[in-house]
Amino acid sequence: MKLKLLLITLLFTVFAFAQKGTVKGTITDKEMNNEPLPFASVTIKGTTIGANTDEKGTFSLSVPEGNHTLMIAFLGYETIEVPFKIASGETKTIDKALGTAGVQLEDVVLKIETNRQKESALLVEQKKAIEIKQSIGAQELSRKGVSDVATAVTKTTGITKQEGTGNIYVRGLGDRYNSTTMNGLPIPSNDPEKKNIRLDIFPTDIVEYVSIDKVYNGKTSGDFAGGNVDITSKDYKGKGFLRLDIGANANTNALAEDNFRLPKGPNSFGFSNPANPKTISSYDFNTLQLEGKTPMAGSFGISGGKSFDIGTEGKLSIFATGSFGNEYTSKRNGSAKGSVNGDGSLVNRNFNSFSSMGYNTNTTGLVNVGYKFNNNHKVSFNSLFINSSSQVKDEYYGYIADLADAGNGLIRRSEYVKNTLFVNQLLGEHTISNRSKFNWGVAQNNITGDTPDRMYNTLRNTDNGYTIISQSKPDNHRYFQRLKEYETVATASVDYKFGKTSEGDFKGKFTAGYNGRFKNRDFKATQFNFKTFGPYTTTIVDPQNLDSFYNQQNLNNGYFEISTFVGNAEISNALDPQKYTGEQIIHGGYLNTEYKFNSKLTAVLGLRAENISQKVDWKTQLDPVGDKDEFKKTTFLPNLIMKYELNDKQNLRLGLSKTYTLPQFKERALFIYEDVTEVKVGNPDLYPSDNYNLDIKWEMFPKSEELLSFTAFGKYILNPINEVTIASSTNDISFLNTGDRGYVAGAEAEFRKLIFESGEANSKKLTAGVNASYMYTTQDLNASKVDKETRYNVDFTKSKSAFTGASPLLLNADVTFFKEWNNKESNISTTLAYSYFSDRIYALGTNMRGDQVDKAVGTLDFIVKSKINKNLGFGLMAKNILNPKIERVQENNNGDVTLLTYTKGMNLGFNINYQF
């Protein structure tokens, strides 16, 4: 009986299998030149038979014989149905290419998205790529409530942002060691002191995703040691949409101010641009009066996109967005000191009260036009305009050596800064054959950076009221500055595959390319000093109405005189500005060879050669006659990247490279820049550093939304550059090659986990992520080297030091809960995000003074986003909930001395959006 049952079961099984066939195929991405599309859903309509495509976009299903419909879908793409008939034992191949479609992503942002914005898709690209890089897409940025690119990159491993700026540190290395590109093409700085543009002026509304390359690969400029940040702008491919956004925000510190006041003059949209006075014989300046503000800010924006099919294969895609946003800021409960001796005694200034009020604006416009002739040829044009402004009023009250020894001095420094960036890019992608591709790009970048009126006043509080301090001419002044930079960039590369296998794949690929950068900078600055004559330094003035003293009548009556750094009213060239010009030309060529040794091991060996020329001419207060300096450098930069696939979920990677670090124009121009508590001066003797880099990384991708990785890295830097206090009467800071060598060693870890997921129609899931890095940095400090190589002298407190800006420990963590209902048309997500950096050096110690150190800070943000229906959505944000004290100390041998403290307040925001 048992034998009979066994035979029946066997016959039934054989019969069942005999009634089935196999359908298989490859799903590709029509918008990306038919690249494989992983994780696409492939199902048999009306059944439970289905699967997801693998990394190569392939699938295979066992289906009963008969007539069926194959359904192929991917989020952000069109869903297609393919009827087919299959016979018993037959194998049928169905290959299809999916095009994009306009949908709303599950991250509740009502935008037209493509898969390149999704966290899971970027993880797939990271897994497949030979290069070692990290990316953060629009979906993750939205979930974490990130509004600008500077904050975006700090959510990735090993990166922090300098307090109060948009400057970032990658693995402890600051501005000079990093680079910034947009769509793979370089973009210039909007700050004369910086190499990189402020990343916080880029709103995430224009971003498809941001990539951070920490391992050099030879395709980009060799001026690289920390990392390259590449901003990929939105490239719309959907059917059509129009979206409106409006929001409001407030800072709790600003709301708590009894009288929030800023200088009168600049308009609320940040486009004001006061002109320099044309003469110093008359008082031709804007008002010094302050006006009250209601510190409630907001934002609004509009964006839209549409695609048009042209002919049988062509497609025209257009995306445009425009937005305006503003914010009020306030630093409260603060104090500040100038220089402090090693024994803790004060050198020049001690302000027991420090406060700062500010107003920032950002206006952005982006147009992207892409035309795909067919699957082999595509060109795109990007035009980006950003106008940002910052208006700040800082007030310092306390001790000023020799000017307010009783601790009754007041310094008010009001600054208005306006920067305009205009970038135009034209890019092309062409598939010549199954072996070769040709990519090219050209761009014109224009930057105008204006400080059209910085106002600086020094006062003393007496029993009768405030009087003007005017011991030296610059104690009261107005400052005007303009930076203009024009840069043309070009790139071209050709890929050629070789070593074709019997399966039709290729074992290797040559990539030959060229990059060119042609940069010109013109910088001018004029400072108008107001020297008050003796009898009138006792005149009582109102700090809220200094126009009552500084006016045409009092100038005519001889109360004060106006002069510049190069003369006075009787000299014809009194209005000649301080200025410098810079020219930098870089030609770079490279050849990369990629080779797949077997199914597991792939390597890319590259060699890049660059010819660099940098010229700087100046005429400044330190050198009224003027001078110039030039250096040329030809360098060869080998680089190697290896990837070993341990299995289908794990990779082991290695990166080796040589790079360099260039000094910047202003660092080499003999130009002086004054702040309230520090003065910086250029060093014409500064020269480049050379860097040697090593990375080893292990990564595992358990599921499509999960990641576990560990990285060890090291850097050896020859002739590192630092900002250091030099021996001078005013303790100026300059830029020096401070020693022969420096080292960076560290480890990074990243973990992303899908904690739980349930439901289909009304799904919910909980996800969490954490990334951390630990770094050790050290460098030699050699005073005799500085004395020998430069015109400056320095007395280092220590013979070794960590790198400035390097935090030994960095940490980011977040947890997100997501739920949807109403057939996935409605949803809500909540995210709690935490960031932390440990103590880091701000400035190296000299003259027996300890290092200046920014103390550790942890920040906590809470973000809620919801889609009420398919058209309407809203968001709530509470940032900097912990409101920690920001503190800078000088670490002397006999104890720390606090140099600067304040709190920034909590930022609260609300936004609503509607999509047609």
Automatic annotation (TrEMBL):
Organism: Flavobacterium cerinum
Family, per entry: Belongs to the TonB-dependent receptor family.
Superkingdom of origin organism: Bacteria
Localization: Cell outer membrane
Signal peptide: 1-18
The protein's name in its UniProt record: Carboxypeptidase-like regulatory domain-containing protein
All residue ranges annotated as the TonB-dependent receptor-like beta-barrel domain in the record: 446-881
Pfam families: CarbopepD_reg_2, Plug, TonB_dep_Rec_b-barrel
Presence of the UniProt keyword tRNA processing in the record: no
Domain (TonB-dependent receptor plug) ranges: 132-216
Assigned keywords, A-Z: Cell outer membrane, Membrane, Signal, TonB box
PANTHER family: PLUG DOMAIN-CONTAINING PROTEIN, TONB-DEPENDENT RECEPTOR
